[in-house]
Amino acid sequence: MPPTAPDPSSGEQLPVRTAAIWAALDPLVGAGTPLRVLDVGGGSGGFAVPLARLGHDVTVVDPSADALATLERRAQNAGVGDRVRGLQGDGDLLHELPLDGSGDSGDGGGYDLALCHAVLEVVDDPAATLGEITRALRPGGQVSVATANRAGAVLARALSGHPKEALALLEDRDPAPSRTRPARRRFAPADVLGLVEGAGLRAGEWRGVAVVADLLDASSGADPTAVRRLELALAGASPYRDVATGLHVLATRP
Question: Checking DSSP bridges between strand 246-252 and strand 137-148, what pairing results, if any?
Answer without folding.
Answer: antiparallel
